[in-house]
Design brief:
Blueprint lengths: L9 H15 L14 H15 L3 H35 L3 H12 L7 E2 L5 E2 L2 H6 L1
Antiparallel strand pairs: 1-2
Helix pairs in contact: 2-3, 3-4
């Protein structure tokens, strides 16, 4: 059971709502959008956020440099892993999966929208064919 405080001001209402939502729904952690992100990098980012809130510029800059260093290392490690995997597939003469891996690592499909002369975005397929 969730203990609620007596309602008297907006702060108590806000704390009651937050307590209830954290208890019922839980706290949703941020997920990694990139494959090279690690929990260590996430933890350092949280430390950096706390240092910024404390207005500790020296600590913030130190953590920020460390994060950039770890990100570079993680990206490099991920790229070498992808290269080794592609080399392994190439040695096995598995051209289909080799090209699939190659596209995954190198090709980024961009979403391109068509814009007419009146600066409106075209979303209809018929109109796209006409342009």
């Amino acid at each position: 059971m969730i203990k609620l405080k007596k309602i008297g001001s907006w702060e108590t209402i806000e704390t009651n709502i937050k307590a209830a939502t954290e208890k019922v729904i839980g706290y949703n952690r941020q997920e990694a959008r990139k494959s090279w992100m690690t929990k260590k990098i996430f933890n350092r980012m949280e430390d950096r956020r706390i240092a910024k809130l404390e207005n500790n510029d020296i600590k913030y800059n130190e953590i920020h440099k460390d994060i950039r260093h770890k990100i570079r290392q993680a990206k490099k490690q991920r790229l070498t892993e992808q290269c080794h995997e592609a080399e392994r597939l190439h040695e096995m003469h598995d051209s289909f999966n080799f090209h699939k891996k190659f596209k995954e690592s190198c090709y980024n499909k961009r979403n391109v929208s068509s814009i007419r002369h009146n600066n409106k975005i075209i979303t209809d397929n018929e109109q796209l064919r006409l342009t």
